[in-house]
Amino acid sequence: MNLNERAITKLVGVFTLILGLAVIFFYIKSGYKSFGLYLIPIVFVIVSLSIILKENVTRWLNEKRAEKPRRSISQFSFLGFFILPLSIFSIIGFFLLFFAIKLKWDVGLLGWITVSTFAFFPLVLIYSLIFGFPISKKRQKQIEERQNKLFADDKGMTIEMPLFDKNCFINWQSIEAISYYNYIINSDFTEHYEGYKLYLNAVPIYTKYEKQFWLNRLFPKDSQSKIIDINNETKSFGEIPKIVEKYLNAKVGIEVKDLMKNTLISSETYIRKNKISTVEKWKPSNGRDEEVVFDKFNRSIDKIRKSYY
Question: With contact defined as beta carbons under 8 Å apart, do 158 and 133 qualify?
Answer without folding.
Answer: no
